[in-house]
Design a protein that fits this description.
homohexamer; alpha/beta
């Protein structure tokens, strides 16, 4: 059985992430979506909210797990017996950063391969950061995230 | 009549910005310089100071307005009946970010076109951020910004 | 009146080119599509064929002319009293080359401004070169070029 | 069973290619190395030589086939029931070109996914083109290609 | 005598930095490693710690000095009679930023030349930032920094 | 004594090349400009013409030699006891190619260091190729090359 990890902050999950998960699902027998719990960078949604939004988006899909990620990605991958780490590759700045991370991870643990998938071109320039920015300014984000994520923004902004 | 919006933080206005405004002025009947009021990112100069520095720099130019920008850029553009958003394009990292913003804006409002202009090559690597860094370290910034902006730095640093 | 030049080899015209022409048409009163006659680089379609395919694609559009371009672009622009040269900006490699050309043109003739437009994202990675490659290998190019260009390929390949 | 295609010109095969093939072999049940027969671009080694050099390099590996590729890559992939096309991703210029090809292939055939793998960093800047250039100038290429490819260069250059 | 400045934050020094220092040492008669004291950006190690870690790493090397850098780099270079500023050039994002800084420094002081060296390829994607991230998550950083820097992390994290 | 090699095709020499040579002259005791004799790529000026145009441009400068380069660059560097290879770094596409060459050269001969210098920003986008293109179309190239190179174009084009 071939298992892949798809790591990220998912703050929040976007259509771009879901597109990558679907593509990974065709290449691997199981995909674990690993949500980074970074206590240094402040997230908009809490870890629990981010996990819930992802699980809600992926409801009904077999062979996709959503789990929090605490320590080093490669340790998590080895522990879960994953063959590969999956990353979506968008623009140039992504590419550099992704390469750096992937080479570092390979140095730390040679057995885990990083593979890059290309999201649908209409999601090429989509990012969680820009979705949060548009939401903050009162713009309509329903083309970029599932409807229950739109609702989560509304609830969060009311607070 | 064709009207363009030139948005930015202008913290502070540099010769590079003024060069783009002049070029835009030849292509459009009116240019609105829209100064983003971002209450999340701390600016060096206040919104009022940034507006004043720009107006001072553009004094005497017809057909150029300076206005604060509060909400979404595309909403502002539609409200002002602008045909285009103008952006200066410098280096590669710019290019990626600018493309992302422009595609997002097009998704949000298809009627507003983003056009990219190329500043004078001697301003290619000029940015407000680097000007602030040089000023902070006591360097001479008079080649990069108008003289009244040099004065504004001096006043600000005395405080 | 503001007139723009949109130069290229158009070997052959693609949906990406037509998208840029349409966008330019909203910003300028007249657009001249200038087809480079390069006797050094062998083209697949002759200059006459490329002009005809463009004219056929643009039939019925006012304010768009198709003309051959023989000498220097900036001389042509000055002669036609054009304010601007329009270029579609796609990927990174484009960006570098386009910048180089635009700076050179500015050195040769400061009065002509180059402006960059962003084609629809689904055309971001479309190029005449790749269309010719797919056609050569027997692939279906009908998503990338107008139907009369598909026919032109068929006629050309029979020869 | 999951099968992947690894296409290229392999003119000639380098250690970088072999590294990608090995990585792909861990992710897929079978890998078909597809050698493009491009009658437009002149190759240094003939198609037959390139196939032989690859087969010699891969001798003894199960689950790796070497085959000529004549038509469109996606048609070949569908015909061979391959789930994925594998590409090694090296530097920036690669990235742009690879993205363009992958998006085009997806347009032509949505069922075939392109995945990108990262060769060992010491092969990051290795290419067949540069190996040929060094061999032409009499340099030592034994760090870049298998020894039987070094021999093939020697035989070819004697002709 | 030719003297070069190698500036940076060195938070902390990595094998990549030491590699650049060694290369610079072959090109210049003396190298001054200048450690930026940036009171705006919070560093992990204090200025004193960063100086000590560098000096410890460079112990026994003649013709290499380690000094704090307070004001503008170019002022420091002129004061120390340095001919050149040395920078390691890694990936694309580096390149843009480095170019911007180098052009600005040239504008501020034309007599100081910036030269770029290429670190060993296995250090191409190494950075202090990523080392700190791995250490924070409990990963093994002994391939990336000298052993006394590994110890310094351990001491710091105990606090 | 520190000697550097500055290799290239110089077809023809431009103000950008001369700017790099001058900068290299301040960092090294001697600079050898090495003109590649590539019998595979057709040059506009012959090797002899390119050597003569360079020597004419550099007339009166001590410590700069102009020589043809036939074999591998690193062999030439070792033979001439050069410490470094100097390259001008312009735009992104340059960067990738230059990195690839520099890493290859280091693999072939570790003792030769490649250093990158940044030409004056007004020469950033200047290249021999674009100069030839402008000359071919009858444009004025006197801002880009020395006057005797302008004359050489005129003589060549009369033939």
């Amino acid at each position: 059985m071939r298992r892949a990890i798809y790591p990220g902050s998912f703050d929040p999950v976007t259509h771009g992430h879901l597109d990558v998960i679907e593509r990974a699902g065709k290449l691997f027998d199981e995909v674990i979506v690993a949500v980074a719990h970074n206590d240094q960078k402040q997230s908009f949604f809490t870890l629990e909210e981010r996990l819930a939004l992802l699980r809600n988006s992926l409801d009904g899909r077999n062979r996709v797990q959503v789990e929090p990620l605490d320590g080093l990605l490669v340790d998590f991958a080895v522990q879960r017996k994953a063959t590969a780490v999956v990353r979506g590759l968008r623009a140039i700045s992504d590419f550099e950063f992704e390469f750096q991370m992937a080479l570092m991870n390979r140095k730390l643990e040679a057995s885990v391969e990083t593979i890059f998938l290309m999201p649908k071109e209409e999601y090429t320039y989509l990012s969680s950061r820009i979705v949060k920015e548009i939401a903050r300014l009162g713009g309509n984000i329903s083309n970029f995230v599932p409807s229950h994520v739109v609702d989560a923004f509304a609830r969060k902004q009311k607070q």
